[in-house]
Design a protein that fits this description.
This protein has 433 residues and is α/β, with parallel strands linked by helices. The chain is built from 16 helices and 14 strands. The strands form 2 sheets. An 8-stranded mixed β-sheet has the order 3-4-5-2-6-7-1-8, with helices on both faces. It has a 6-stranded mixed β-sheet with strand order 13-12-9-10-11-14, with helices on both faces. It is elongated and about 80 Å long. It starts with a helix and ends in a 13-residue tail after the last helix.
Length: 433
């Protein structure tokens, strides 16, 4: 999007412009593009353009092809033989070529290539040619050779590994054959392989980065409905959301139980899993709030966990959450520095009731009864808690999540255990919504 200063400069520059001048200005992509939509500098073979729906990926891919076909200086060496590979031939035609942000649309009238649908090819006046291929037919890529390729929605390709590998054998012309890959990411093996490849460079953008080009109502509705959820993080934020096969808390299970509001709650607790240290790189302090209704259904209400907090800081954060939710008590794990945990909470606010819990079993054994409650549909998340849910989804038999101690999950387990898996320590009282 153009800022006010740039817009003012453009107004001055365009005084006396003819219609053709305006068209040339509008088609000058480096002026309008975001940084993530422009080719990275340096040596690379695969440019992965990962983004949410409507983030401008197709435009970036089409502009890159336009640049290498025309040999525009800002794009580098000119390509002569280009492969356009989509999920199907219909996708190549309707999205990559004829679409609103496709190849025909990004060219000015005087430089637009000739599209020959019957031959499935685009030809520029300078002799550069682009050919359409379907990823469903990897064998069609056997034989042709190219010096550039644009692969669209790679994560949707049903025969992705075979099609991409066959393309690599043909990408052998010129001094620096390259491919641009535009896709909304999913954790498919091919994308993981490319992300791990040292010859790949990555650009990322969320849907909201392209808000200027989208209907305001669309963006508002999508964010309201899906922000923070697995689907929203994948389709709107362009994140690669992994799934661990042995997870005690499968992501789909949490997604199905998500709710927007909760009924009147009889008890609410704030649970703390304190870190052993506040130094840089130390474990986070887990701070999670949950409540339950009269029927024993649990509702996760908040995740205020954070790293780098001093004891006074995490105590203040937990007590603030306790006050905000009108909770019954704070539950704190005291295996590490029990005396300190009691003292710092008392020093911050001596009126807050505190229950101490001590871990006598491993993390997995403590988490299993809580995981069973999720499986039985007795736990719901009120809203979304992306960082907590990432820890849950990656927590398995090794007792780790993302290679680290699952501090947010530990606090969640203490909160739910205190509410419904251990004797009640407070008189129930009903709260309005």
């Amino acid at each position: 999007m153009i800022g006010c200063a740039r817009a003012g400069t453009l107004n001055e520059l365009t005084v006396g412009f003819r219609a053709s001048d305006y068209e040339a200005l509008l088609k000058f992509w480096p002026l309008w593009a975001r940084e993530d939509q422009l080719p990275p500098q340096g040596a690379w073979r695969n440019w992965l353009i990962l983004g949410g729906r409507g983030a401008g990926k197709t435009r970036a891919g089409a502009e890159w092809v336009r640049g290498v076909a025309l040999g525009a200086n800002e794009f580098g060496e000119r390509a002569r033989q280009i492969a356009l590979v989509g999920e199907s031939l219909a996708d190549v035609r309707e999205v990559m070529i004829e679409g609103v942000s496709g190849l025909l649309g990004v060219h000015a009238r005087g430089e637009r290539p000739q599209w020959e649908p019957s031959r499935r090819r685009l030809e520029w006046k300078n002799g550069a040619v682009a050919y359409a291929f379907s990823a469903d037919d990897p064998e069609s890529l056997r034989g042709p050779q190219f010096d550039a390729a644009w692969c669209d929605e790679l994560c949707k390709w049903r025969r992705g590994e075979a099609a991409f590998d066959m393309l690599q054998f043909g990408l052998r012309l010129g001094a620096n054959p390259r491919s641009a890959i535009t896709t909304t990411p999913r954790p498919v093996p091919l994308l993981k392989r490319l992300l791990a490849d040292s010859a790949s460079v990555v650009s990322r953008a969320a849907t909201k980065a392209n808000a200027f080009q989208l209907a305001p109502q669309f963006l508002e509705q999508m964010l309201t409905r899906y922000a923070g959820t697995r689907l929203g993080r994948q389709e709107l934020d362009g994140e690669v959301i992994e799934a661990r096969a042995d997870s005690l808390f499968p992501r789909e299970r949490v997604e199905k139980a998500r709710v927007e509001t909760h009924p009147p709650l009889s008890r609410i607790v704030v649970a703390i899993d304190p870190p052993a240290s506040s130094r840089e790189g130390a474990d986070a302090c887990g701070i999670v709030a949950a409540g339950c209704d009269d029927e024993g259904k649990v509702f996760v209400l908040a995740d205020e966990s954070a790293s780098g907090l001093s004891p006074l800081q995490w105590a203040s954060r937990a007590i603030s959450l306790y006050r905000r939710l009108d909770a019954d008590r704070i539950v704190v794990e005291v295996n590490q520095g029990g005396e300190m945990a009691r003292a710092v909470l008392s020093e911050t606010d001596a009126s807050v009731p505190v229950s101490e819990v001590r871990a006598t079993r491993g993390k997995v054994l403590r988490a299993e009864p809580v995981a069973a409650l999720y499986e039985q549909g007795r736990v719901s998340h009120v809203g979304s808690f992306p960082l907590l849910e990432d820890e849950m989804a990656d927590f398995g038999a090794d007792g780790l999540s993302q290679g680290r101690s699952p501090d947010r999950l530990d606090a969640l387990v203490w909160a739910i255990t205190s509410l419904v898996l251990s004797p009640r320590g407070a008189t129930p009282r009903m709260r309005a919504l």
